[in-house]
Model the fold of this input.
Amino acid sequence: MTITQPVAVLGGGSFGSAIANLLAENGHAVQLWMRDPEQAESIRQNRQNPRYLKGVRIHPLVEPVCDLGQTIEACQLIFVALPSTALRAALQPFAGHLAGKMLISTTKGIEANTFKLMSEILQEVAPQARIGVISGPNLAREVAEHALTATVVASEDEALCQEVQRVLHGRTFRVYAS
Done:
C-alpha cells in the first residue's frame, strides 16, 4: 500500500514537529495538527516551532492545521504525538471517523486514572483502527537535527509496520519492525 494522500501528525510539540519534518524530508505532504491556532500560524509564517523545537526549520511540506476532524478525514496514516493527558479527550469525539485508519502512537507514558498505555487507549477509542507504536532510544532534537537515530515500530499488523518503515526510514533515521 502506498500513501498518496497527506500523512497526519497529531500534536505540534517537539516530537510531533520532528516526526512531521522527517516525513516531509522523505517527500510526504504532512498535516501537522495543533490545538493552538496562533502557534500554527506562527509556524506557517516563520517555518519554525520556537516553543518546542527552537532553531529547527520546519519543512515546506509540513502544513500546520487546526481542524482535527478534517485532518483525520484527509489522512489514512496518522502519527499520534499528543500528550498522554490529552490523547483520549482529543480523539474520542472523532472515534467514528478512525475506523480503518492506521494510528501510530508516538506518546510515552500512561493514562493517570486507568494506568493504560497509549496504544490501549487508541484501541478503546478506535477498535476498528489499525494500531501501531513507535518507540526507541531517540529524542526529538536528535531526530530533528539528523543525528543517527533508530526506532522500532511494533504492531500485530505487518503491513502497517512496513508502511511506517517506508515513510519514516531515511538516511539518518532507521526504522525496525517488531
In short: The chain has a mean pLDDT of 94. The two ends are 19 Å apart (CA to CA). The longest helix spans residues 14-25. The longest strand covers residues 130-135.
